[in-house]
Task: structure prediction
Amino acid sequence: MLFFNSKIHYYLRTRGLLLVLGLLSVFLGVGSVLANPGLIAEKRKVTRVQAVYLKHLINFTHWDAKDLPMPSKSAKVLLLGEDEGGMVETFEYLVSESKMKIGGRSVEVIHFEKPLAPDAIKAIESNPSVIFLFPKSNSQATKIRDLSPKSLLVGNGRDLVEKHKADIAFTVSKNRVRLVIREKSFTRKSPMLSSRISALRNVVEVIP
Amino acid sequence: MKLLFRVFVLQCIAFANSLFGQVVGDSNSTELSPFEKAELRRLLELDFLDLSRMPIRSVLGYEQEHWRNPASVHVIRPDDISGNGHVLTVDAFRNVAGMYTTRGVGYDDFVTMRNFSGSATEKFLTMVDGREVLQLMGGTINWTTEDVPLAILDRVEIIRGPGASLWGTNAVSGVVNVVTKHSAQTQGDSIRLVFEDDGTFLGDFVHGGQLGDGEFYRFWVRDQEYSEGKLISGLGARDDGYARKAGFRFDKELGADLDLTIAGGFATRRVEHVLDLTARLFYNNAADPGSPIPIHLASALSLPNLPVPLIPTSWQSSAVSGEFISSLNLPRYQNYEEMPQDGSHIRGKLSGVTDNDLEWSLGGYAELYDTSLGHIGHSWEREEFDFDFKANKPIGDFNHIAFGLSYRHISFDVDEVVTTPWAFSSFDLNTASFRTDIPIIDYGNSPAKFERFAGFIQDSIELNDHVVLSLGAKFEDSDLSGSSVQPGIRASYTLDEQNIFWGAYSRAYRQASLVEQYTTVSYARIWDPATSLWVNQSFSGDPNLDDEKMDAFELGWRTRPSDRLLIELSLYHYDTKDAVFSGPPVYSTSNVKTSGGELTFDYQHSRSWHLKGGYSYSQGKKDSKPQDDFPESMVNLSSHLTLSDNLTFIQSLYYTGERTIASAYNPIPIDDYLRLDLGLIWQTKENWEIGLFGRDLLDPDHPENMYNDLDVEPGQVERTFLLSITKKF
Result:
């Protein structure tokens, strides 16, 4: 058999359309340099996947009753920092669409753009069930952890778990969203992550 | 076509304008678009494993559901099958606009996508977990053999239109990609039992378990029993029989981002098939040799020098006593023979992601298939080995390259026998001798071993947040069809948060089947009164048949006015050269042009009412003459109304326009038909589901299809009532 025999030549010779399309692609390629391409679509996709992960993680977390608000009140999820990927609206949509509950309580989503503003600190000290930190607020994670030791602290980047005592961090590697989880999150009494999550070896990295 | 092409070019210009003009809305908005909301609802249904496998940046063909995908895509989920009262996956294609799904007899289903079929019905590529399942011999797919239990089915992706640059030869009118679940997602036991009022039965049992850390398995068994239906003449179709299947899958995590999958299956089917012989014996019409006279009519007309006996002794064994056919009242002859099929396959796949984001898979497949089409005395055994390597990798911020290589080896062992009625002496014009051993289909000493090498490369380019461009080509070299290049370009343009336009040009190829290339078909015998001889009539395939070549132009519009409503419009124009049509006198080629489109919608009115539907329009011209072998219009509509937390009422309506079953000898007109299905599904809290469906409630029976050209009589598709009992994982 002859690979690339004359048929190929025939097509290249006769299909002027290919040439047109080739020129078009070059034109568009140049255009991609001249234009102002962004990675917003990618960022928003990461946000969507993270938000669904967060929703699942909450389902796999147990809180002692004493760490939850009164049954008549809603459990709080605080989102702290500058939201660049639409996490606030995404998570609010998931809460509404899935009728999310924490310990049988309805869920209230609260966002503070400045994590250490007086209102935000007050909210952190009120022992919210979950605190989610946006990437630019990682440097304040240790302080937030100290202010609310009984919250499930979630954010971005491995350092958040390794250095700032957060429970869960999302990382993006190998074109996937993955989870880094502090080992203590599986062993402490409340909030305690289900050990079923640690069995997902390809998704979850558990670190001391 | 010119108009469509101009529109295509204009759309390309619009894409370019978007690059410089940035006329679109503010993409920095944190507000969720209707597309994003719908995507979130889908993601909510995924578990950790699915989420962990979701690529952030994707390439066309690797994540077909993304709304920016520049292709016409429909995805079937298991609930779309059981929830609409369908038994097999192929039945659910009736809910897909652009797909024409029909039944011959009880065990034979035919699927055509976007118009013309020629000799073969399935001019699209079907893959089950990466394994090509198109039968090279006849160019068809055995949907029963390839079906899998719903409990292990993840999804069926249907890509309307050629996907050749990524998928390769035979991805002409579309691609059907069946994907099963990872065995970690099928842990425990699942049962599905389906009983039909005519006695047809299907039973599936699936068991999955864990062997160790990161080691999961499942196995499954299926029994399918067919009851006998009726042919359009009212005669029994003798299509009762059974199909039994078993399969397994083992998944192991070998390391971080390195997975091994080994899977296999075995299927056996025992049924009978019939060949109508009523119009196979003729009397030579000297005045018009092209229009021979049926032998019984010649006898009725007392034409001179008739054979004695009028019907050869061997032929008389197929007489159906007291039955007559056609306005000529010809005595009926039918020959039933067994049609056993056995198939088994095993596949292995190693897949992973490297530290530099290269996602790859290395797969190997081996298949053994043994069948005998007893009614035409044609049997073959096929051994097949396939290897493929696929990879994709983001390059920089805007490009995502996909590439791959594959090799296939197929060998056939073909055998022919002469069925009893045909075993009488006749003169063979091909050998100029008298013979009693002329089979209906003769493969002779034609080539029986074939190899194919292929490679593809494709770049998906995210030009900005609004324009996605996909450029690629597939290169193939095979013993059957030589070398070919199959290029494709696709692009989508996000106009705003609610509207996306896409366009595509592709060149695709379909290999002529082995039957079309290498067989000699003896379809009749003619009594020559001048010589007092029976003369065999045959036509032969053409080994020099070129690949069918299709230039395809597509345009699409996808809009979500709200997150609850999706409307899609897809338009296409296919220009096909050398499309194969069967003789006699030969398998000939024609140029075919087809144009049409699909308009679909998916409306989730509320949590309690979900409405889906589609309209397809298609017109084909063969050598500039309009074709009628495909319905011009088709409609499907299904409504799911939740009556209470665990009770759903389903209504499905299907309309199929009139058509003709193509045949060189005996074309059969099929009237348009309207089908109404109603059903109730009751779901218990313990994962049990009970469904009760009435199908074809408007019509006690109607014919739909049968094999072209073999003069096999269509069966009646009858009204049925169906009870399904399912225990999910």
In short: Residues 1-14, 30-38 of chain A have pLDDT under 50 and may be disordered. Strands of chain A lie at 61-62, 75-80, 101-102, 105-112, 130-133, 152-156, 168-173, 176-182, 192-193, 204-207. The longest helix of chain A spans residues 40-59.
